[in-house]
Amino acid sequence: MPKKIDLYIIKTFLGPFFFIFSILFFIFMVNIVWIQMFNLGGKGLTTWTLAKFFYYLSVGIVKMVLPLTILLASIMTFGGFGERYELAAMKSAGISLLRIMRPLLFTNIFFASILFLFSNYIIPDFQKKAKNMIYNIRTTKPALNFTPGQFITSLPETSIRFDELYGENDNLMKEVFIHKTAGAYEDQRTIIAKKGEIISEPGSNYLKFTLYDGFIFEDNLAKPNFNDRLRQENQSIKFDTLVSYFDISELLDKAIESEKITNDYEFQTYHQLNSTIDKLAETNENNLKTISEDLVRQSSNYLLEPTKKSEESKITEPFSIDTLKQEKKLDILSNAYSKIEGLEMSKKSQNESILHMAKSYAKVVMYQQQIIAYSIMCFIFFLIGASLGSIVRKGGFGLPVIFAIIIFVIFFVINLSAENEAWKGELNPYLAAWLPNIIFFPFSIWITYKALTDSQIFDIEKYKSLIKPFTKRFLKNKEHKRYQ
Prior knowledge:
By secondary structure, the chain is α+β, with helices and mostly antiparallel strands. The protein is 60% helix and 12% strand. It contains twelve helices and six strands. The longest helix is centred in the last third of the chain and has 67 residues, at 326-392. The protein is flat, with a radius of gyration of 36 Å.
């Protein structure tokens, strides 16, 4: 049964926690919207589609926002306790700092567990939807994927063909052919135009075609009387400008929501990634074996020339190239240079293949390990934040925000640097994924120890007294103005 003091501490922590989470989530979300905007312009997307797309993307932000929120909320909570002398009052009542931290420790362990479940089961599904949507949006132009020189049958009951797309937005056409898809006893309609323009208005479910200088050919076959069908009417209409609209609402929803990418590692859970990593390691091992065998075989072919076996063949001493004629000498040197250059190019190409394999393997391993690493980072950031807050004894958005930003920037730089080194194959991906935790965990233990012993690590006078014996040798004591 939690005591009143535990409920008070948790209540004091949750207020800043949800407020900070909302602010950070909004900041990260604005950054994502700003980055993705160039993929969304001129695609005829509705407001609902855009909202759904950004909703899918927003879920992945949680794993970065939550650890930073815990860090900042912990500093603010314990800094506020110290600033309002509540921390001193609790300690004077015989309550230790660890006892004060205990309810929030369990609270943040709960948040860390939620983050693990969220990263393992929910984020992969939303990543799948978001990645497929952005792929479908990128391949949509302006609302569909039009390819010159091919019959396009994706529009409802219509086949379209044109020879060329041009213009700034690739929305102008040349030599347009549009045919209405109809049955044997339905009205037939064909449009031929020299030029045309595709217009897709944002938020509209209709695709507008404006055609110039062409003809409309119609065969009226949809008549109730069979004899009238025999006397079918053929019409040919010349036009200067013709405007046609096509309803693409169903096509847009189907195209954007279709999941064409299904085998990405970001769509898998922690246990599913184990089999993916094993298969990837086995594939890489086989590829490396093939690459090494190819390089050895090429080197052997270049260095060892095949000779015919004969009984009369004798072993001769190596000849000197200087004994050859100038033309033969140049020919031999040119062949040797070509072979060495070929080996260098082959080696460079194989190194790029090896680097690509190492990067792919590192990405999958780090993604899997970070599912757990980020959750544990919540616990580490809480220890750092609570200890710093109790030492600094400043609440609000001043000093706590500065400390939180500095710590998070260091964490981000370490994480990014480790990722880059792992992608280059110069650092083990398992170590790279856990490197920020390995570095920050000892620091969290040290700062917690300092907070428990009431160490004044931010006391400037303390550090001045330490360096005073050294500065005293170089500084001359100034006499008081009264005695000058």
